[in-house]
Write the structure tokens for this entry.
Amino acid sequence: MRIHYRLAARFGLRRSRMVLWAKYSASQVISTAVSQIAFALCYWFGAAALWATVIAWIAGGIPNYALSRRWAWGRRGQMLPYAIIVIGSAAAAALTTTLADRAAQAWIDTRFWQTMLVSSSYFATFAALFVVKFWLFDHWVFAAPAQPLQYSQVRASPSSNDTVGA
């Protein structure tokens, strides 16, 4: 038996959950690559860290939503929770890159190393949010709709004639 199946069995994971995790991971890798390249290019050519973050977030967000919705979960998600999560992620990245940019401007002389430091902070933000976003997407945005109760599942409330403890 392969090691990943043993680990999955050990932690009670079904094959479908492992496939979902793999698809989510792949979609994040693709969108992160697009986003990271956009950020590095914008910042290298003189955009402020905040604007480079916004441009990179938009560049990576488009494939991220399409891949998450259609490929990983295979269904439409709720737009408001999705927007809250991704805008919150972008705000965290904007704060991180702005602070890293200030530090880089103060301590590093060459544009190459400034770009490397600030780009690394952009990447680190999304790497840190990777698992959190998966959980939020899975439990909030793309959660399977609740099934309505069947008649056989509904229990009648006790009538006034029933006595408790008799």
